[in-house]
Predict the 3D structure of the following.
Amino acid sequence: MDSCKVGLGLLDYATETQAVYIKAVHKYGSSNKAAKALGKVRRTVDMALERVKANAARQGYSPEHDMTHPVPDGFHLKGISTLYGDDGEPKIQWVKTSVDAQRQKELFAEAITALSSSIKPEPRAKAPKKTLSDILNFYPITDYHLGMLSWDEETGDNWDIKIAEDLLVAWFATAIKQSPDSETAVFAQMGDFLHTDGLEAVTPASHNVLDADSRFQKIVRVAIRVLRRVVRMLLEKHKNVHIIMAEGNHDPASSIWLREWFHALYEDEPRVTVDLSPDPYYCYEFGATSLFVHHGHKKKLAALDVVFAAKFRSVFGRTTHSYGHMGHFHNKQVIESNIMLLEQHRTLASPDAYASRGGWLSGRDASVITYHNKYGEVGRITVSPDRVKG
């Protein structure tokens, strides 16, 4: 390898060790001379340079192949097409890119870590005077699709960002008032709280076009505002509140900043805990009762019991009553296996055009389930949107 093929532009794609080799080859004019100067064998230098060049090429940088337009962070290269003139020189070049989903998640996490350092913590709410320590209220909200747009003439009911915000506050006001005064509450936001996961109104994995209401920044603003209000309402009812912000298929990246953001908001509030697990399976232990949560986009209801028991082996082994919860399909199903009771929950949101046209319809409601620390489930209330409106 000579210096003309090992330019310093490769440093942007190199590790610290690879950077040393690149600079040496550039300085001495060949990998053979560089290896001697560094006290290495030539093969070691050549292999390191091949690896960094391959990494650079994957991101669109390979000058010897006329690839000089690297893709931005958060994307990966799909292909490059180059039109050459009669003189053999490139005239026009098309760079094809696509979103690197994993890197996008990493960037979201890095951004939230940086921003969280300057977030003003939420002021403490006044704690209730009397609560029952042997019971827990479980508030499962799933597939809320904040930011979705639905037209009643097409779907049977209207839905937009204002309707969604007003309904969630009204639902919690009703549900909290009617549920028992337990010491502990688990707010289980079980995924797909946001309808879209970025600037483009498409599903992250399949890129299906979505009916979206409003700009993504406004959706984020409303999401934070309404969830902060809900948590404050819960803190006024319960002594301790545990928050789960589960990953969904509509909002895998947004679930990251929701978890990190709410952890930062309540870092000075000892009565609030936030599950920060990046794994899309969640668990809460309450005496002899164990509660498990998964959105449902990775495993179907019938297979969840084994996954929960395997992932949370210690908790499952210590508890007598186990309950698994998921959403995703917007309809209610209950399965009792040999080891736990599994429940698939309805949503409060109206159907979108895709669901309505496909005939995937179900009732709309959400429940507050009360669990005892010795006896498992001991009660529940169910509140529908019509009941709140009425």
Notes: The CA atoms of residues 119 and 265 lie 7 Å apart.
